[in-house]
Amino acid sequence: MTKSYTAKELKSSVGVKWCAGCGDHAILNALQKAIPETGVVHENIAIVSGIGCSSRLPYYMETYGMHTIHGRASAIASGLKSANQNLQVWQITGDGDCLAIGGNHFIHAIRRNIDINIILFNNEIYGLTKGQYSPTSKKGQITKTSPYGTIEQPFNPGALTIGAQGTFFARAIDVDIALVSNIFVQAAKHKGTSVIEILQNCVIFNNGAHGYITDREEKENRQILLEHGKPMIFGKNRDKGIVLNGLDLQVVTIGENGITEKDILVHDAHMQNPIIHLALINMKAPDFPVAVGIIRDVNAETYESLLLAQENEQIEKSSITCMDELFMHGNTYEIV
Amino acid sequence: MNTEQHNTQETDNVTIRFTGDSGDGMQLVGTLFSDTAALLGNDISTFPDYPSEIRAPQGTISGVSGFQVHFGQKKIYTPGDYADVLVAMNPAALKANLKWAKQGATIIVDADTFSERNLQKAEYITNPLEDGSLRGYNVIAAPISSQTQKTLADTALDNKSILRCKNMFALGITYCIFNRPLDFTNSYFEEKFAKYPELISANKRVLREGYIYAENTHALPSTHIAPANIEKGRYRTINGNTATAWGLMAAAEKANLPLFLGSYPITPASDILQELACHKNLRVRTFQAEDEIAGICTAIGASYAGSLAITSTSGPGLALKTEAIGLAVMMEIPLVIVNVQRGGPSTGLPTKTEQADLMQAIYGRNGEAPCIVIAASTPSNCFDYAFMAAKLTLEHMTPVILLTDGFLANGSSPWKIKKMAELQNITHRIVTEKTSNATAFERTDETLARNWVLPGTPELMHRIGSLEKDFVTGQASHAPANHQKMVSLRQEKVDRVSQVIPELYVHGDASGDLLVVGWGGTYGHLISAVERLRNQGKKVSLAHFNYIHPLPKNTAEVFAKFKKIIVCELNMGQFANYLRMKMQDFTYEQYNKVQGLPFTVEEITEACSKHV
Hints:
heterodimer, A: three-stranded antiparallel β-sheet, B: alpha/beta, Rossmann fold, 3 domains, six-stranded mixed β-sheet
């Protein structure tokens, strides 16, 4: 019988050392809340991280864990999952770790659709090295290494996920523990690589990076929670919606210009064609609300299921069952 | 080069060098000749020599590919310095390889290819078949292309497919000269072309025509080479990369662990990945990663999960894996890194051999990050050292770097087939349940190796990582005294391996005037040179190292018994300098070569002669 365990039992004895007010605390709480709900036994949880503030997370979890080297967590997690399919593998990473030094491993893990859950803490800055711009910093942002503003186009992690043929992408705000936790549970259940972008606030080096969309007064107007099977309606008065106009998304107001609720797009996270998902991922303030929730969740074969199938097929087919037989197989000769 | 020096043709062993365009199938005919020789009971050693371009412009010198086989009725240690028989399928092949033929050697050329255009491409001003420059050689200018075309004129094959068979005509000529039966090669055609019966018959016919041509033209008196006096038993011919792959697989079976290889294709190491990819039936998992770094990182993940984890690469790849090797050292997990050395630096000479990654293997990491370093010394003993690399990493819980090189990787030699029961046991340190001393950070006093606790084990959850860890709790620690203790501990773990590895063996007398010292893939050439010198009555012995870090514990004792020591290696003196650091009581002479080529027995003999 599977022994149940609680969020509290997932707290390790190591004291958490993130700055006060850092968004990481909330994400840690959400993860501890989510894991027991996934139904996987405690000892089968493994958490792999790279380097950066977020990557300290495995130390704070009473699970199996590896805090590794910068950028390589996707590769290490891929090896871990390939070697033992029973594990529920989480990768903890930040925008620098995942998208700069680790960008190659990130897209290839997604392409292979290995069943790992990648939690990307996106604070649009390098925190642990004290304030240099990252691959998600907004163009023009002034940081220690861009005193006159960055001249680089930022990555959109969701678009990158779609580009790599991702099967699961979700986005949430760090402090929204209920939503974040629920997404983690769904990500764990998804078979294949899940990418969860958490818009996380670095209080020290990039405070308020996501302030426009998390603004207490305006967030209902600036965010849209996407739920599978439900119309894309948002706004303080629940009167705004998303429609498809040609190949573009458009924000409309229900009740104006003859628009009714029936005209509003219904979110289908399960559709294989990623075009609408990509458009939703790309919605940017101030013209659009920023999409949160599970944007894409589609079925596809996982790397490890194909690996096991191939292995079993070869075991069945092959006449060689051990090394002694392999040594004697084919061209051998006797010296007498 | 003075060719006068190597004009004596020994009768108990012969070297043949097959050369042609890289598309001419020279590697295949060389391999077929070698297989036949091995099956007849000769000892053999082979060495392919091919360009890094897959198909360089046809007919040019840069596109020439070669395969040398040395076979005989005595123990064969090397592929031979110079060839008794040179097969050259075009002028460029002749131009590039004549320097490897002994004075008086038999030279078989495809006379049909010596057209003006081909001569020009080969940068010949006059036709060497006509200008007298080959005087002193026994030249067989055979119409190989045209005879092949005539032989197959009645088939449905197009001209291109017909000409593709001409390598078999050349092979047939050599079979006649050395009195070899055609059966083994014919059965190869039957297996290889099972789906194309017309190709079976075409290749068989051309092979036979070549044989008959040589017989009819009395190309040479037929030469008989008797079987070698080698240990009785069942053998197979194996190259270094296959032997490496099999040694690792054997270790996994012995340790009862799944094998996981994370790797990225790189010359000349790709064959290890390719070979292991074929054995899914034996639960071998191969992961072709997106780059070298991911290759080792997936292996690190698999090691944490409890696989015998391997990554394979060559020099530039080892450089890329550096940081991750440090991680494996820090986490104290089992991991074998196979480095098939090639000519460097940078991309260097991808298809050529060298031993210049030694310092990179021993020291090439940030921080104090010691690894066990061992090296194979023959194509077939790549099996033994791959097995040993796995055994050491599993028992000592620290990474092992196994060095081979392009020469061993692609060269082949007979391998007396082992039985799994004969191989040493491997005792890994996996702990499956919680007991008083079961934590991941408990160590055994003998080796200082920690326990291997795998995810999925109840009640033993722990975190490991790249940060320095506390000796007792395993948690991240920046405490100064603890860091010193842990740095010393990781070095001590490696040093204690000297207690379990074999002592250094001396070939020849235990004392004398000169000790030749080598390591890794140069063994065959060094032992041949030392035997030659000993036959001349010189007091020379060989100490060849397979264990490099740590060194065998009797190393100083061995060195002390010789008046002089000369370290021979295919680099600028890396092992010599390492010995100067580790064994300071001795003076070391050096002989070094960095041409992308193996030593010749002759040059080693000459270099050593100067010291006795």
